[in-house]
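pinging the channel bc i need a second pair of eyes. not urgent but kinda urgent?? the chain im working w is below, pasted from the shared doc
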Amino acid sequence: MSTPDPLQSTISSLDLSISPTHCGYCGGQGSLSQGMWVERLTVSDYQALLDRGWRRSGRYVYKPCMSLTCCPLYTIRCKAGEYQPTKSQRKVVKRVQNFVKNGTKSKEDELATAKTTKNEAASNNAGEVNKSLKRKEKELTEENGKETSNVEPSQFKRVEGQRKAKTIRREKYLEKLIKSGKEEELEGEAAVPKNKPKHISALIPDQNFFALNQKILQSETDSSHKFELRLVKADLTDKHFMRSFHASYRVYRQYQTVVHNDKPQDCGIQTFAGFLCDSPLIYETKENKVLGAFHQQYLVDGLIVAVGVVDILPHSLSSVYLYYDPVWWGKGPNLSPGTYTAIREVQLTQQLDLPFYYMGFYIHSCPKMRYKGRFLPSDLLSPTIFSWHNIEQCLPQLDAAKYSTFSEIPASDPPPVLPVMDVGKVRLCVNSKVTRYEEWKGEGGHSEEVEQYQALVGQHLAESLVLRWGESNGENDSDSEEDN
């Protein structure tokens, strides 16, 4: 036996009862999960827990009962280095940038812009209709002189007209290329227009690197608003974090009451601190990166307008939560703070040279959560063999049934080799001494809960984590659920 190491992961208690609770996704009472309360957790152990379908909320780490819960929660990760923003995601970035640069328009300006746009659209539509009518009239009066045995003359003229329209569009495209100085792309008839995917760096500033406690300017000098990013540790003992703690809390409270309709008494400062500021992760520095729990703050004109809570881990950046000022984000048209901040977090993942961006859970049965599936390429975690599978191949199965193990879909990476289960090697802390389950059992102890715990975390983590057992868990009668 030995005393607990302050730098090792320690589980304070288990919560293995399966009792249905309210589901925030479907509104029913069928949400089922199991969990544990954590004293401290190394970033490597938490990375391993994520890769087995676990997720943390403050110091509580939980795992959904996938085959039983009303809305299965699939761990989703995006391959950050291969991510290319979609057209709609690029529009979100542009809208935020334009709003920061130009500020809020007056109602008169918005009405004038809308009227001008409407008139221009009507004029363009009328012009296109006239052109189309003239083209069809010409096609009908011209003698073609070419017919085939299986095409009627009228049908042939329609197809020929489409061909001519394509030729005209092609000529306009080539003319545009020549005027823009891109003649080198014209290599005979094989040349075709290409919509090249854009990298994040082509959309947003690269000044999003890991720089603790520093405001990093994101806006242009002539912008209406000054937009900055700041990364701080999510640590109640950190003086830099505490300087903005109350301002950050005010944004959280407004977000919870306005967006989620929470009662003010349900989102007090203690709830905020325990939920988003009191992390069990042990900070450590590896390869010039500080790993642990952080808040990425988005500041406009010196005020916090959004906070992305993230965990920086050995192989990933994991998104924990997002809260934002609904008033500020509501001033602009469709600013989409969730999508915008997710793109910025992918960028931070890239700049930290981490391969994966974990977006939490993908809930296919909840339409509003499907936006995560548009960050490609992404994989979903199999809830049984813990292998990763391309989400685009998984979606047809999830359309057919809300629960799937993806066993028939090829894995994106070789599946993990799961070690032989040996409950005797589970590490326990009994009476302030670290021991093994087999030793404790040899002294007359026995617990089915320890065996359930081993099955949930897996053999590797059961030998790495230390589970406190004894006084609070009922050493002499640990089979009783009431003792845990």
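so The chain is about 35% helix and 20% strand. and The first strand starts at residue 10 and ends at 15. — does that match what u expected or am i reading it wrong
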